[in-house]
Design brief:
By secondary structure, this protein is mostly helical. The protein has 4 helices and no strands.
């Protein structure tokens, strides 16, 4: 719990530090010729911030994922243990039958064949059920990972769009000559 609190506080510290760093660089550098260019420190800070954000998300999701997979592992292990117990019981019954009916080889052969078929059928049923359960778990895990990845991707795209809009509004707010307006329109039309 302490690790989660420290990770969350580090995250908020980094998020809160972005405006302060930008304000310091703005005060030091004044207005530059091109407001669209970023300093290497800003770019590095953004990358470090992104990496820390992704690491914090991975850290926070680690325990629930581990607990989920551990519970699934325990369920599968118990299913396999039941199969082993059933197979051991089947083998024990077979041995008792062989002792009692040692002289009647025809009946022993029939009983052995029946027990083997039951054991094989039961084993195959358990294996098939375990495979279906494992496939279901893998599918659920993939869906959950895809859902989380889509959410993160949406958040990143939203932040990028907000940053582009802020930067564009800042550029438009500064003095622009008529030639600047024409250049922007031409660039936009060339890209479109």
């Amino acid at each position: 719990m302490k690790k989660q609190l420290s990770a969350i506080s580090l995250f908020f510290l980094l998020v809160a530090g972005v405006p302060a760093v930008q304000a310091q660089e703005h005060e030091k550098g004044g207005h530059s010729e091109s407001a669209a260019e970023e300093s290497p420190a800003q770019t590095a800070f953004k990358w470090v911030n992104l990496i820390l954000l992704l690491a914090a998300a991975g850290f926070l999701l680690k325990k629930p994922a581990r607990d989920f997979f551990e519970s699934r592992k325990n369920e599968i292990t118990s299913g396999l243990e039941r199969a082993r117990t059933a197979q051991d019981d089947s083998a024990r019954r077979m041995a008792e039958i062989e002792k009692r009916l040692a002289r009647l080889s025809a009946e022993i052969a029939a009983m052995r064949t029946q027990a083997d078929a039951e054991s094989a059928t039961e084993r195959e049923n358990i294996i098939a059920e375990t495979r279906r359960e494992m496939e279901r778990i893998v599918d659920q895990s993939r869906q959950e990972i895809d859902r989380i990845a889509q959410g993160i991707e949406r958040d990143i795209k939203g932040k990028i769009a907000d940053a582009v809009i802020d930067r564009a509004s800042h550029t438009l707010a500064t003095r622009m000559t008529e030639d600047d307006h024409k250049r922007i329109v031409v660039r936009f039309l060339d890209k479109a």
